[in-house]
Amino acid sequence: KNSPASNYNDVLFAWRGPYDQGHDFEFEDKNIEVKSRSIGNSSVKITNEGQLQQLEGKGLELSVVTLERDQFTGQTLKELTQDIVRIVEVGLGDTSVLYSALRQKNLGLHNLSSYDDLAFRAVKLVDYDCLKDAFPRIIRSELPDAIFGLKYSLNTAELEDFIIEEIEL
I need a surface site. Which of 2, 7, 15, 127 has the fewest CB within 10 A? Predict the structure, then answer.
């Protein structure tokens, strides 16, 4: 939404999360790992030791969206998808890229309403620089081969020194 319309396709093509490849977004100069957390909970789950691993010498950011469950003013997954489609269409972007990514997770306009009992309102977005010295992360390249499949939680309340940008939504 904050990107110029000329970049919509670049953002859509950069969305790699549904394809289970590397990071959620992979751009030329940086990758972005996206996590969500609920209001009142400061932790996010890192589900493997590759999620905060720098790739190909690019920058790496952790983007944390704070969500509030809200059936009245929140959005369902279907409503959010429809909003994104409208934004992309107005900007003359390629919605087929979005639909293709959703299909990777067996989602489409035909079944998104299955999640209509879940509505959330985005409250805040905070971006962190994962490559800044002392950022707390466990990464594959620093582990012996015998250790794998790690999952851990990061306390975002302890990450203030690594904030790049904080936006109230």
Answer: 2
In this structure, are residues 11 and 3 in contact, taking their beta carbons and an 8 Å threshold? yes
Give the Cα separation of 129 and 63 in Å (integer): 9
State pTM to two decimals.
0.94
At residue 2 the predicted structure's pLDDT band, cuts being 50, 70 and 90, is confident
DSSP 55-95: -TT-EEEEEEEEEEE-TTTSB-HHHHHHHHHHHHHHTT--H
Q: How far apart are CA 111 and CA 117, in angstroms?
A: 13
Distance CA 24, CA 107 (A): 17
Q: What percentage of the chain's residues is helix, strand, coil (to nearest 5)?
A: 30, 30, 45
Q: Over the stretch 94-113, which tens digit does the pLDDT of each residue have? A: 999 999 999 999 999 899 99
N-term to C-term CA, the chain: 12
Rounded to an integer, what is the distance from CA 81 to the centroid of its chain?
A: 15
CA distance 122 to 37: 10
